[in-house]
């Protein structure tokens, strides 16, 4: 599949440092990259760094006479960012691959669509968690993100024992689930 004319124009614009083309590429692709990095142990700054590296790679490829884009730009950018991020995680010792080298492959379109759906669900979950309120939000974060045990949670939240903390966590989880699916169903 050849990239369509609009994408060829964007690539040509990027190769000639056209600010409109660069802005368009940023607007159309950064959100996807940011969500991927945030979902995989990264920060907003990490996402900016990785995206910048990918844009430099795309810029260098676009300037090359022999480069032929055989997929959508977003697929290419996602693939480059994914490879760069996994490589960085591996260097930081937070990711281990079966092989020592990461191949330069471009995933199929379905891979990007699946990732975009996951990113959308992540954003819905983030909104649901934001509207959950206290102490539920802190309790769930303590258990699932900070990996605290029920005894520790009971002490820090003032519950009489671990069973009461566990019951409260369950109630909070059910409220979060209800909020998530209410927002998820609206978005479909």
Can you describe this structure?
This protein is mostly helical. The chain folds into two domains: about 5-105, Rna Polymerase Sigma Factor, Chain: A (Orthogonal Bundle); about 130-185. The protein is built from eight helices and no strands. Helix 1 crosses helix 2 (about 20-40), helix 1 (about 5-15) packs across helix 3 (about 45-65) and helix 5 packs across helix 8. The radius of gyration is 21 Å and the shape is elongated. It starts with a helix and ends with a helix. The relative contact order is 0.09.
- The total domain count is 2
* CATH architecture level-2 label of the largest domain: Orthogonal Bundle
The CATH class of the largest domain, by name, is Mainly Alpha
Mean pLDDT metric: 81
Global shape: elongated
Number of helices: 8
- DSSP strand tally: 0
Largest beta-sheet details? none
CATH topology of the largest domain: Rna Polymerase Sigma Factor, Chain: A
Helix content: over 70%
Strand content: under 5%
End-to-end Cα distance: 29 Å
Derived structural class? mainly alpha
Rounded to the nearest angstrom, the radius of gyration is 21 Å
**SSE string, helix = H, strand = E?**
HHHHHHHH
Which consecutive residue ranges, at least 5 long each, have pLDDT under 50?
96-102
Which properties best describe this structure?
single chain; 188 residues; mainly alpha; Rna Polymerase Sigma Factor, Chain: A; 2 domains; 8 helices; 73% helix; elongated
Short description:
The protein is mostly helical and 188 residues long. It is 73% helix and 0% strand.
């Amino acid at each position: 599949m050849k990239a369509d004319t609009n994408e060829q124009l964007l690539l040509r614009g990027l190769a000639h440092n056209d600010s409109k083309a660069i802005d368009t590429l940023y607007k159309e692709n950064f959100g996807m990259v940011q969500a991927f990095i945030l979902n995989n142990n990264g920060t907003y700054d990490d996402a900016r760094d990785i995206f910048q590296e990918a844009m430099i790679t795309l810029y260098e490829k676009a300037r090359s006479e022999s480069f032929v884009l055989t997929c959508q730009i977003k697929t290419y950018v996602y693939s480059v960012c994914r490879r760069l991020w996994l490589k960085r995680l591996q260097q930081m010792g937070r990711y281990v691959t079966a092989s020592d080298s990461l191949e330069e492959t471009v995933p199929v379109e379905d891979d990007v669509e699946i990732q975009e759906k996951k990113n959308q669900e992540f954003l819905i979950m983030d909104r649901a968690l934001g509207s959950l309120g206290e102490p539920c939000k802190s309790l769930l974060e303590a258990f699932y993100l900070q990996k605290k045990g029920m005894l520790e949670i009971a002490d820090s939240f003032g519950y009489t024992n671990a069973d009461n903390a566990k019951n409260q966590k369950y109630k909070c989880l059910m409220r979060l689930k209800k909020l998530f699916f209410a927002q998820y169903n609206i978005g479909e």
